[in-house]
Specification:
This protein has 12 helices and 13 strands. By secondary structure, the protein is α/β, with parallel strands linked by helices. Strand 8 and strand 9 form a beta hairpin. It binds nicotinamide-adenine-dinucleotide (NAD). One of its GO terms (biological process) is L-glutamate catabolic process.
């Protein structure tokens, strides 16, 4: 027997694209495009462009494990559309990542970047891996090998990755270093979400949560909902959910419930968010937090609240729980958290949804600022970044709100109208080559 047997890392979860009862993220995106097509006028002749990713790369990522064996993981990088600029989108490490999911996430990046009018197309990457089962050196080897494998299509003017679920500043530093070693020069602009000392931007770490908070406050104001004292429930307590929860609590809201992958905690008077953040950092989850009531995870959806922030994974709000949700306002921190059927149920019930493609665009907006700063080698203050971020988010929400009122459609459809028009106009102006 070889000293170095080959292991194939697999997950037992049925991939969503094989489950006939499960629409899957890419199917949801296609439905969203179909809903918006009647509003696109002459540009509708280009709509097929949106239904086909420009480029899909599937890579084998073999790494040597600490015990000397070799494990293989499947990695993806999808460039959905680059009509308006280079591809841009995060990299996700998760045991359930599928190509269909990465295709949808890349497509939502195209929509999001166009909705906030940053000059990027849409892309996304991922590795089908449970990073919690890897040691730090294994995680580094995985990241470096993956970066080398996708190095043929990424680059500061081609496609710029960033953090997503289970990836962070440290992973971005490894990606930047690996790409730089391969091209023979330090290329800080190849990824965003880097550590500050490597060309990262002040405010980037907090940007997505701050964007969620910013549009949440504006939407609440338009609905006549006072943030001070408002009850907020948050699913997912990582980069997006944790920071959004902190900002809402600082503004006087009561964060009454938080659910993550391992538990759910509830306090009617409001959770001590800084203490909960410290607990989650120390233990890896909100479960076991003292000073709060532990709830069965499923009960999260019944929690009495005014504002619900899904900030974990896609397809969390479905036909099965949409009727139970008590919030008046949903701000989608996660990408694709609401299925189209649940969207219809909630709209029918008068619940206002600020869709992911606007609500969580704060991250890519400051990623754009980071990329600009890297190119010019001139860095802005945190105050400047946050001011510009708030301006971009407010302008984008104002614009889609206007379209929603004008056409009598949901904020999601309005955002898709604005974004698809921008993408397809660029497509139309560029024409086809050859
Ligand atoms: P993260 O890894 O920092 O945190 C993810 C959180 O979700 C963790 O608290 C985890 O416990 C929780 N979670 C995981 N599975 C869950 C489940 N089944 N049920 C309940 N909770 C679960 O990730 P993040 O960066 O905060 O990303 C969260 C979402 O926001 C994702 O949909 C991501 O695509 C989206 N997003 C992130 C950014 C960003 O800048 N980080 C930008 C835009 C959108």
């Amino acid at each position: 027997m070889s000293d170095n047997p080959i292991r194939v890392a697999t997950s037992h979860a049925l991939p969503s694209y094989l489950d006939p009862h499960h629409l899957g993220p890419w199917g949801i995106f296609l439905q969203q495009v179909d809903r918006v097509t009647p509003y696109l006028g002459n540009l509708a002749r280009w709509v097929e462009t949106l239904k086909r990713p420009k480029r899909i790369l599937v890579v084998d990522v073999p790494i040597q494990m600490d015990d000397g064996t070799v494990a293989h993981f499947e990695g993806y990088r999808v460039q959905h559309n680059t009509s308006r600029g280079p591809g841009k989108g995060g990299v996700r490490y998760h045991q359930d990542v599928t190509l269909s999911e990465v295709m949808a996430l890349a497509a939502w990046m195209s929509i999001k970047n166009a909705a906030v009018n940053v000059p990027f197309g849409g892309a996304k990457g991922g590795i089908r891996v449970d990073p919690r089962k890897l040691s730090l050196p294994e995680l580094e080897r995985l990241t470096r090998r993956y970066t080398s494998e996708i190095g043929i299509i990424i680059g500061p003017t081609k496609d710029i990755p960033a953090p997503d679920v289970n990836t962070n500043e440290r992973v971005m530093a490894w990606m930047m270093d690996t790409y730089s070693m391969n091209v023979g020069e330090t290329a800080t602009g190849v990824v965003t979400g880097k550590p500050i000392s490597l060309g990262g931007s002040l405010g980037r770490h907090e940007a997505t949560g701050r964007g969620v908070y910013t549009v949440g406050v504006q939407a609440a104001r338009r609905m006549g909902l006072d943030i001070a004292g408002a009850r907020v429930a948050v699913q997912g307590f990582g980069n997006v959910g944790g920071i959004a929860a902190r900002l809402f609590a600082e503004a006087g809201a009561r964060v009454v419930a938080v659910q993550d992958h391992a538990g759910c905690v509830y306090a009617e008077a409001g959770l001590d968010v800084p203490a909960l953040l410290r607990h989650a950092k120390a233990t890896g989850s909100v479960a076991g937090f003292e000073g709060a009531q532990a709830l069965p995870r499923e009960q999260f959806w019944d929690t009495p609240c005014d504002i619900l922030i899904p900030a974990a994974l896609e397809q969390q709000i479905t036909e099965a729980n949409a009727h139970r949700i008590q919030a008046r306002l949903i701000i989608e921190g996660a990408n694709g958290p609401t299925t189209p059927a649940a969207d219809d149920i909630l709209t029918e019930r008068g619940v206002l949804i600020v869709p992911d493609v606007i609500a969580n665009a704060g991250g890519v907006t400051v990623s754009y600022f980071e990329w600009v700063q890297d190119f010019s080698s001139f860095f802005w203050t945190e105050e400047e970044i946050n001011q510009r971020l708030v301006a971009v988010m407010n302008n984008a929400l104002d614009a889609v709100w206007h379209v929603a009122d004008d056409k009598g459609v949901t904020l999601r459809t309005a955002t898709f109208i604005v974004a698809c028009e921008r993408i397809l106009r660029a497509r139309d102006l560029r024409g086809l080559y050859p």
